[in-house]
Amino acid sequence: MTDRDNAVFNTMRQPPNLRSGLADTLMAQIESGDLKPGQRLPTEQAIMRATGVSRTIVREALATLRAKGLITTRQGLGAFVSNDPTARSFSIIPNDLQSIDDVLRVLELRMGVEYEAAGLAALRRRPEDLDRMQDRLDALDKALEEGGYGAQEDYAFHRSILVATQNSYYSRLFDTFGDIMVPRQWARLDKMTVTERKRHAARMRREHHAIFTAIRDGDEAAARRAIRSHLSKSAARFEELRDASTSS
């Protein structure tokens, strides 16, 4: 490793959010060209000395970069920057969601995608699409009634909307993320009282049924309004959780 390579890492500071902060720092150096395609990364020990974080944090950060296609590992040689790090597929992985602010950014992305998709679904849905959406909605209702989080059922319902656009790129985009697009681990549902859980479940049902009804009726404008309202209310709840944790 050259002196310049060491200099890049010697200027690093301990990231405030540990794993995600270290991964972000390394990604920034790769994307800026400070770490070039094919270049070998410093050893775990060298990164630990430069940043002050533990070996576990370093390994988790490197795992994040591997999952994003930014680095590759060669047995006995170490980790290297991918030869074409800018030609990777976009993805969101669990390690990306390290805070409620990260969840809010995902919701912003979803709103942009699903707002348009809901309108297209209302215009293009076929009978089989409506049957699929109804099945997914029934499954979500059942999960909520039984006191579950319904994350997988929620994801499946939203994906059925994307399928109804008759544009496979929408559903393929969601498939890239999986049910991480419904980040229940940050919803703090386990902290709710029984009454709060019932109120939350009732709201979820109303909002999802409003989306389905608008798409079923072929009302493009109403479908867009319903999906925007649903995701906006979800974002508002996460903002409340963030503000409450900050003030406590």
From TrEMBL:
Domain HTH gntR-type: start-end pairs: 16-84
One Pfam match: GntR
Keyword DNA-binding: yes
Membrane-crossing residue ranges in chain numbering: none
Keyword match DNA-binding: yes
Top-level taxon of origin: Bacteria
Record keywords, A-Z: DNA-binding, Transcription, Transcription regulation
InterPro entries: GntR_C, TF_FadR/GntR_C, Tscrpt_reg_HTH_GntR, WH-like_DNA-bd_sf, WH_DNA-bd_sf
GO MF term list: DNA binding; DNA-binding transcription factor activity
PROSITE patterns assigned to the protein according to its UniProt record, in alphabetical order: HTH_GNTR
Protein name: GntR family transcriptional regulator
